[in-house]
Amino acid sequence: MIAASPRIKLLLGGLAVALLLAAPWLLSDFRLSLLGKFLAYAILAIGIDLIWGYTGILSLGHGVFFGLGAYCMAMHLKLVSAGGALPDFMSWSGVKKLPAFWAPFSSAGFAIAMAIVLPMVAAGILGYLTFRNRIKGSFFSILSQALVIITVTLFVGQQGFTGGTNGLTNFSTFLGFDLSSPDTKLALYYVTSAVLIAVFLLCRWMLNGRTGKLLIAIRDGENRVRFIGYNPVVYKVFIYALSAGLAGLAGIFFVLQEGLISPAQMGIIPSIEMVLWVAIGGRGTLSGAVLGAVVTNTAKTTFSETFPEYWLYFLGGLFILVVLFLPKGIVGTVQHFFARLGRTGGRQHAEASGAEPSQAAAK
């Protein structure tokens, strides 16, 4: 069983990639666009899993980092669609001149870089100030929610610069490609899939190394890590900033495929939903984070379309069922099942050979 496990993982990974490649031939344009958006969410979910599942830091404010990345890309798209003129929402708000901090976002490269760097810098500063003072657990979670409230209030209040409650929308092209074109949407889907696979593999590589072992050690016993000579603050700030960068990266692909970003999409409720994706898929498993993001949002879309009046009850019921009967999440429960199956097989083999289970395992 142990020897076959890597083969099974490789087989499942290959099947997942094959399904991603085949999706354009299996789904309509609308469904494919939805799947592309869900894959962007999966990138975000991997980041949350890094800090919560592997490091034990529960952040309820990742909507802020997702929103910062999305707004950076949306600012570039809005400037392109304005064609050198002042964006429409600024004119409606009485702004006469393009703000200085908007001007650099006319460059796509600058917008992409800032969509990743800005959330990382914000998370790095917040993480250093909190982790250095050993703020953790529920106190950090509450603090992260306070960050959401402050940021959303700021974005809503600065209507002339951010679009207010309406946010930024009405985009036309990106790098010269028409965003409404089916070919562009197909290309964005494939790029999102490729980036998701790259993020997954890079995070898997990191977690299999010393950094991953230290993150798990911090989760299970931070004081012990400190006593053996490591500084947990450095690793916690690093993983928090990395997670925020992945959230910003997800925001880029979300805006390109959704065509809209508003303060409502970076609020407290979306931030909590992001954590639920990881919980449903399986905390502490990267594949669970990806699966949870896709399955949860697919269920949300299906329920809202099929039962428009009752879909929130169905979605809430799904969350309750997972918490009560699948506390390890989908992937975690499957892994636990196969682990028990392997132990049962080992005991049966030991009984058949007349050896002690520990001796059979040693062989």
Characterization of the model:
With about 375 residues, this protein is mainly α. It is about 75% helix and about 0% strand. It has helices at about 5-25, 30-50, 60-80, 90, 110-130, 140-155, 160, 180-205, 210-225, 230-260, 270-280, 285-305, 310-325, 330-355, 355-360; strands spanning about 170, 175, 175-180, 260. The strands form two sheets. The protein has a two-stranded antiparallel sheet. It has a two-stranded antiparallel sheet with strand order 2-3. Helix 2 packs across helix 12 (about 285-305) and helix 11 packs across helix 12 (about 285-305). It is globular and about 85 Å long. It starts with a helix and ends with a helix. About 35% of the residues are buried. The model has no long low-confidence stretch (mean pLDDT about 85).
Indicate the low-confidence ranges by residue numbers: none
User: How helix-rich are the residues, as a percent range?
Assistant: over 70%
The averaged pLDDT comes out at 87
The value of Rg in angstroms is 22 Å
Q: Biggest sheet, open or closed, and with what strands and sense?
A: 2 strands, antiparallel
**Which class do the helix and strand fractions yield?**
mainly alpha
- The number of helical elements comes to 15
Tell me how many strands there are: 4
Instruction: Using the alpha-carbon principal axes, give the shape.
Output: globular
In what range is the share of β-strand residues? under 5%
Oligomeric state of this protein: single chain
SSE ordering: HHHHHHHEEEHHHEHHHHH
How are the strands ordered across the major sheet? 1-4
Through-space gap between termini = 14 Å
